[in-house]
Design brief:
about 300 residues, alpha+beta, Heat Shock Protein 90, 5-stranded mixed sheet, globular
Length: about 300
């Protein structure tokens, strides 16, 4: 009876090696070319997604504009039922607008089309403004949002729109999952980020001076009283299009935290999650005060 060929690997003296690559898999000698083709295909797919998302912006803006026009009653009075329908249409339009913006940002980050623009600014004012924009939505859901400015934070160079996007995405994440009557805290503080150097210090004295130096970064945290995330997903939540197994029906495409990770890395920072199931989440990220001297300023995927 004929049998199909299989790959065989046996360790030890006289072991037989693989009889060949698995069906449909490239031979080892062809791997570089296959990898290059895969990269090109991914690039084309990413560009196509960005182009499609951009083409959707104009018709969506027109639909949203007509919705606002009808709500204003400039074209005539509307009933309460019609007003409710228009409110639902407006909410759906804004949600779709956010999806499109996520696709555009993701595409720009993947293709290198989103550049960082650093300028001197006040991080407290930036965080306060984002909280102001989100406060109404939090109140409507019955959530408490707290932010207290930290007067120890100096002014430094950062990309204001990118920081606002990072904080907004993190607040939106809490908004989705924190139950009614929950609480969200936004906190920022100076931080001494002792990054691993490329070369060893010349002396132990230099090492001690480095430990005792002034803060070189800001640490921003968003904490909440939500359901928490199991430890095995603490890294995966920052992956592209990732959703927790029990949240697969949740609105969104799984790009919010992936975009946050890329933006933070693009500003020379890093981000991480602290959480236990049933004990809320705490997302924290670091942004250096001097981004130009940071060797990891280019965004990259893990």
């Amino acid at each position: 009876m004929a049998t199909g060929q299989k790959n065989v690997y046996v360790s030890g003296p006289g072991a037989s090696v693989s009889a060949g690559p698995a069906p449909g898999m490239p031979a080892p000698v062809d791997l570089p070319q296959a990898y290059s083709e895969l990269q090109q295909r991914f690039q084309r797919t990413t560009n196509a997604l960005g182009s499609a998302a951009h083409d959707l912006k104009t018709p969506l803006a027109i639909l949203n504009g007509y919705t606002e026009l009808l709500q204003s009653e400039k074209l005539g009075p509307i009933s309460e039922r019609q007003r409710e329908v228009l409110r639902d249409m407006q909410a759906s339009g804004k949600r779709l607008e956010q999806f499109i913006q996520d696709f555009l940002t993701y595409s720009a980050l993947e293709t290198g089309g989103l550049k960082m623009q650093f300028a001197m600014g006040n991080i407290n004012e930036c965080l306060s403004e984002v909280c102001r924009l989100w406060s109404t939505r939090f109140q409507e859901k019955g959530l408490a949002l707290y932010f207290l400015a930290n007067d120890k934070l100096p002014e430094f160079e950062f990309d204001l729109p990118k920081i606002e996007r990072v904080i907004s995405n993190l607040l939106e994440n809490s908004f989705k999952f924190v139950p009614q009557s929950g609480t969200v805290w936004l906190h920022a503080e100076p931080y001494m980020w002792e990054r691993r150097a490329t070369a060893l210090p010349a002396s132990a004295g230099e090492r001690r001076r480095q430990v005792n130096s002034q803060p070189n970064s800001v640490k921003v945290s968003v904490s909440d009283t939500g359901p928490g995330i199991p430890a095995e997903f603490h890294q995966e939540v920052f992956d592209d299009f990732f959703r927790l197994p029990h949240n697969e029906n949740q609105d969104g495409m799984g790009l919010g935290l992936a975009i946050v990770r890329r933006l933070v890395q693009g500003m020379g920072g890093k981000i991480w999650l602290e959480s236990d199931l049933g004990a809320g989440c705490k997302f924290s990220f670091l942004i250096p005060f001097n981004p130009t001297s940071n060797p990891t300023g280019k965004a990259k995927s893990r």
